[in-house]
Amino acid sequence: MSKDGSLGYLTTRLQDAINWGRKNSLWPLPFGTSCCGIEMMATLASDYDMARFGAEAIRFSPRQADLLIVAGIINTKMAPILKTVYDQMSDPKFVISMGACASSGGIFNVYSVLQGIDTTIPVDVYVPGCPPAPEGLLNALLRLQDKVARGDTHSQRRMAEAAKGNIARL
Ligand code: SF4
Fold first, then answer.
1. Is the CB of 38 under 6 A from ligand 1?
2. DSSP 116-143
3. From the CA of 9, how far away is ligand 1's center (Å)?
4. Right CATH number for 24-164 from 3.40.50.12280, 3.40.50.720, 3.30.530.20, 3.50.50.60?
5. Cβ(66)–Cβ(124) under 8 Å?
6. 72 Cα to the center of ligand 1, angstroms
7. What distance in angstroms lies between residue 60's CA and the mean position of ligand 1's atoms?
8. CB of 113 closer than 6 A to ligand 1?
């Protein structure tokens, strides 16, 4: 009840309530391959404490995770494995590309290194830098939470289009 005596109402769309729950309960799967992986570990440890944002339930099984954090160099040979891991994650699923190597190949402009994981899987948020600081990953997590709340990630948009019948349901 408000100060003037009128009854207050909490109104929201069901989808907004679901997305609010999703953004505050992300279950990350860390895909750390090199130096950026160390920064990711620091982000999860007590100094930076990613748990403050509801994303502390680290899972090493893709079937139990909805946030893939790719941190480090991805070799061309690893690309099919990364794709398989992504495909096995539950929908809706989100991807953060951490660091120059994951996002663009970084300084490794050679045939054996993937020139950006977005050539293989959809990426929702990129973290710039070499290496990015833990603050960068936390900032990316906040940006991702904003997108999840709006239903504006690749996975959520695909699910929405599938629900309308515009594309095939996977
Ligand atoms: S971006 Fe820099 S710190 Fe990160 S994996 Fe590449 S070389 Fe290492």
1. no
2. -GGGTS--SEEE-SSSPPHHHHHHHHHH
3. 50
4. 3.40.50.12280
5. no
6. 6
7. 22
8. no
- Quote the radius of gyration of the chain (alpha carbons, Å): 18
- Between residues 6 and 91, which one has the greater pLDDT? 91
What atom of ligand 1 comes closest to residue 129's alpha carbon?
1
Helix 14-23 and helix 134-150, axial crossing angle in degrees, nearest 10: 170
Question: Which amino acid, 1?
Answer: M
Ligand 1 mean position to 98 CA, how many Å?
A: 9
Distance CA 170, CA 167 (A): 9
| Whether residue 141 has its Cβ less than 6 Å from ligand 1 | no
Within 10 Å of residue 33's Cβ, how many Cβ atoms?
A: 16
pLDDT tens digits, one per residue of 89-143 = 989 999 999 999 999 999 999 999 999 999 999 999 999 999 999 999 999 999 9
Q: Would you say 101 and 132 are in contact if contact means Cβ atoms under 8 Å apart? A: no
* 134 phi and psi angles, rounded to 5 deg: -55, -30
For the chain, the distance separating the N- and C-terminal CA atoms, rounded to the nearest angstrom, is 46
